[in-house]
Amino acid sequence: MIAQLTGTVAAVGPTWVVLDLNGFGLKVLCTPGTASGVRLGQPAELHTSLVVREDSLTLYGFGSADERDCFELAQSASGIGPRIAQAMMSVLSPDEFRAAIAGEDQKSLTRVPGIGPKGAQKMILELKDKVHALGAIAPLQPTATSVALWREQVSQGLQGLGWSAKDAEAACDRVADLAETETSVAILMRAALQTLAKK
C-alpha cells in the first residue's frame, strides 16, 4: 500500500498532480482543493490511497491523512467506488462528512454528485457505527480565521493552476456571495473554476 508521497510538483491540473520522485513521475488523482494547494516546481506531500482493479492501478492523493481516511471509509459502504468517494471529499470536509453520517444528515450527503436520497440513507446505515467508533465529532462552526483566509487560498490555488493574478482575483469576486454562507475552500475553489471556464 502506498500511503504517502513526497516529491516535487512536475505538473498539475484541476483534479490531478504529477509528483517527481527523483526522476520517477507519478500521476495522482486529487480533489480540486488538494490540487489547488500545490505549486509547480515546489515540494509537496500527499497522503495517498491506491485503488487496485483488474485493469488499472489508480493513486488518489489528499492534503491530509484525515481526508484520505474518510475517502477510504466512504468506499466501505456498498455501492460507493473511488470516484464517488473522491467527489465526497471534494464537496465535504472530513469533519462535515463524519458529522453528516453521525447526524443522519441526508441533505448534506446528497450534495455530492452521484448520491441520491436512497444512497445517502444506505450510507448512513452502513457507516454510522464506524464513524462513532472513530471518536468525537468536531463541531462545525466557521471561524473568523477560516472566513478571512478563503480568498487568499482560492486565489493562490487558481494562480497555481496557471491563471493570472487578475483573473484569480476576479473569480474570487464572483464567488464572494457564496463565501458568506459556504466556508469550504474546496467548494469555493470549484465555484471559482466554473466561473473561469465560462469566460
From TrEMBL:
Pfam families: HHH_5 (PF14520), RuvA_C (PF07499), RuvA_N (PF01330). Its main location: cytoplasm. Keywords: Cytoplasm, DNA damage, DNA recombination, DNA repair, DNA-binding, Hydrolase. Residues 144-199 are annotated as: Domain III. Transmembrane segments: none annotated. The keyword Cytoplasm applies. GO terms for molecular function: DNA helicase activity; hydrolase activity. Residues 72-91, 107-126 form the Helix-hairpin-helix DNA-binding motif class domain. The keyword Magnesium does not apply. It comes from the Bacteria. SMART domains: HhH1. It is found in: Cytoplasm. InterPro entries: DNA_helicase_Holl-junc_RuvA_I (IPR013849), Hlx-hairpin-Hlx_DNA-bd_motif (IPR003583), NA-bd_OB-fold (IPR012340), RuvA (IPR000085), RuvA_2-like (IPR010994), RuvA_C (IPR011114), RuvA_C_sf (IPR036267). The RuvA-RuvB-RuvC complex processes Holliday junction (HJ) DNA during genetic recombination and DNA repair, while the RuvA-RuvB complex plays an important role in the rescue of blocked DNA replication forks via replication fork reversal (RFR). RuvA specifically binds to HJ cruciform DNA, conferring on it an open structure. The RuvB hexamer acts as an ATP-dependent pump, pulling dsDNA into and through the RuvAB complex. HJ branch migration allows RuvC to scan DNA until it finds its consensus sequence, where it cleaves and resolves the cruciform DNA. NCBIfam families: ruvA. Belongs to the RuvA family. Homotetramer. Forms an RuvA(8)-RuvB(12)-Holliday junction (HJ) complex. HJ DNA is sandwiched between 2 RuvA tetramers; dsDNA enters through RuvA and exits via RuvB. An RuvB hexamer assembles on each DNA strand where it exits the tetramer. Each RuvB hexamer is contacted by two RuvA subunits (via domain III) on 2 adjacent RuvB subunits; this complex drives branch migration. In the full resolvosome a probable DNA-RuvA(4)-RuvB(12)-RuvC(2) complex forms which resolves the HJ. Has three domains with a flexible linker between the domains II and III and assumes an 'L' shape. Domain III is highly mobile and contacts RuvB. This is Holliday junction branch migration complex subunit RuvA. It comes from Ammonicoccus fulvus.
